[in-house]
């Protein structure tokens, strides 16, 4: 039985293995300076992506955990981590102080809505790799940006 795969540049169907998925997610940025709370959530999201080979629905959970990592990263970057400010207020604070560009702040508001929808589902969701992986990788890139750069108005080069 063939599971997941892709069409190579040579036009050959290539099956994806858990090992290939593990190697792919290992390439996403993970900084030594990322706080353990954020790094743990990102690691969990990567592990869920690998496990999604066996349980496809884990991709939705991986996206949710990655979005939680994004929120935690922003909270820890702007406060001591114990702040009870809403994500909306954190995003607007980061926009106001120049940490985030207008575009990235707007994208984070979209991510906030997605996080809320995933946290309060009306049904069991299933996402494709093409839907989930860019969001999860983007969460990794965002956290990497926050913990390797001083506060600046530069765009974090999010894909």
What this model shows, in words?
It is a single chain. The chain is mainly alpha-helical. The chain is 58% helix and 4% strand. It has helices spanning 18-25, 36-51, 58-78, 87-96, 102-119, 129-148; strands at 5-7, 13-15. Strands 1-2 form a two-stranded antiparallel sheet. Strand 1 and strand 2 (13-15) form a beta hairpin. This is DUF4145 domain-containing protein.
Q: Estimate the mean pLDDT confidence.
A: 87
What is the rounded Rg?
17 Å
Q: Which CATH class is shown?
A: Mainly Alpha
Derived from helix and strand composition plus strand pairing, the structural class reads mainly alpha
DSSP strand (E) fraction?
under 5%
N to C succession of SSEs: EEHHHHHH
| Superfamily (CATH H level) name | Nucleotidyltransferases  domain 2
CATH architecture: Up-down Bundle
Provide the CATH topology. Answer: Four Helix Bundle (Hemerythrin (Met), subunit A)
Structure summary, number of beta strands: 2
Number of domains: 1
Reading side by side through the largest sheet, how are the strands ordered? 1-2
For the terminal residues, how far apart are their CA atoms?
A: 34 Å
> So how many helices?
6
Organism: Flexivirga caeni
Protein name: DUF4145 domain-containing protein
Q: TL;DR?
A:
This protein is mainly α and 159 residues long.
List keywords for this structure.
two-stranded antiparallel ribbon; disordered C terminus; mainly alpha; single chain; globular; 6 helices; 4% strand; 58% helix; 159 residues
